[in-house]
Amino acid sequence: MRKTTKLWMLVTILISGLVTVSCSDDDDSVVHSSTDEVEEQLQKMTLREKVGQLFYVRPECLDTTIHFNQPSSIDGSSDDITKIKLQAVNATMLGVNEKYPVGGIILYAHNIEDEAQLAAFIPQIRALKGSPLLCIDEEGGRVARIARNANFNVEKFESMGAIGATGDPQNAYYCGNTIGTYLRHYGFDIDFAPVADVNTNPENIVIGARAFSDDPEVAAPMVVNYLQGLKDAGVTGCIKHFPGHGDTKADTHFGYAQSLKTWEEMMGCEMIPFKAGIDWGCQLIMTAHIGTPNVTGSDIPATMSSLILQNKLRGVLGYQNLIITDAMEMGAITKQYTSTEAAVGTLQAGADIVLGPQNFVEAFDAVMAAIEDGTLTEQRIDESVRRILKLKQQIMKKAAL
Asked: Of 139, 222, 349, 352, which has the most beta carbons under 10 Å away?
């Protein structure tokens, strides 16, 4: 197991004044969510409204005339989707949304043309049933839907690996704050960043320089400072991909990938940045679709494993906030499960939010059916919806300041 002396030295520096790091993501009294307010809202919701909150989808999922069967790549695209370039809410989407509310919408590069189009699109999304939050993957570097669009004049960053190589967590704060500032300006609520993976496998084709470092003691303070930068800009961050995608070779966008590490090995490496983010108070953790056979005893993806999500993340690490899946349209899921099996299975495993099911309507109907037949209980659904409503209240109160 690695020694953590360097980590704690850096954390001490941060606490002493390099960057003011919060103990939690909702420490300001003005954004404290009232349990009574959440419960009151929950009691007023129909079951369909509750189930809708569990789904964060791409806009195409609400247009049932669009069919996409190819796995999405790292940029969130596949040939059949990018040709369509859905960039406004249409009548079909409104009709589907009447029956199928959504808790969040994620925009990809092909959904964004320029500032004028985005400024028109976001209010249309806000008006959808379910009061969806606006989400995006804007890590900086390779994955940046806004910064890689030539129609947007925002600061670009080489990679998180380059930032980590400076050894200065202040640079991670600057990156997070810069990205958060322009995301807030354009109207986004959640950034699915930063990557908290430790890039220990030089043959890794999907993480690489998206991670801050191959050293967890370097990565951890970078992750925390990036989160703080986003928060100070008014955007909620999300650390990913639990329990760590950095030691894999294959790309879960297209098929099965695995880490052969034991839990003890992960505790000495992968868990160090995640634990730092949890201690800071991160509100969202995204799961990885990787198998961890030397932890679970099977090839089940972490996203579908109650041992990984409940026993390890919530139990061992003490995480109490939202668990969101990586996109369920990715090949690591679709090659093993149907949209219905994946949605019900990940909720059974302990996820709170199902991101990007390949077939949203089928997944939604399956969750409703699972509640009706007792596979899932409404009490279980309420647990997740409470966490979601709490986050939404925090975000809306911040936005109103």
From this structure: 222
